[in-house]
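From the pipeline queue, job 12 of 40. The input is one protein chain; the requested action is below.

Action: predict structure.
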Amino acid sequence: MQHYILNDLRHPVTLDQNARILELEGIVARLERELDAACHSDVFGCLNRAGLLRTLERLDLTGLACVYWDLDDLKVYNDLYGKPGVNDRVKAAITARDIDFVAGQVFSGDEFSAFPFEADAEPFADRLLKELHARGLSATFAVFRPLPNETAHEVLARGERMIKAFKQIGKGRVYTTGVARYQQGE
């Protein structure tokens, strides 16, 4: 005698089929947990590049700004504080926040981006630069609005290009549409 039960879709399935469905659901849940873990940087307490891109691809970027930053003179800081010391300082600065945003490590351990609401972007960048300065670090920031229909990859690539150009002008500043808003040491 076959025993049938109704699954969530209200289709009759056998007990064997139901056991297999439950097994597969468990596998999917485990894989989702592993993917989430693979998308997070425990070192910095934020998403890594894969996690950031995965998250941004599911978000509507309308009303958000990109705050892209790159630590200045990373080698000097690594020599001065050691890599773990630099990582701890960056993590402390990133996690000392008072506004909501999605943040992630973009490349290696010195390029990051955050996506706060547009109105919060400049104050966020100013505050983060001050947090980094208080911890003996400096960074260059680019604050800009994602373009309509621009993909997450394109936004991050544009941020990287902007940072390279801005660092030629001067490090340790927040740039918004090409204007230095904060001088190091102010």
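Job complete. The longest strand covers residues 101-107.
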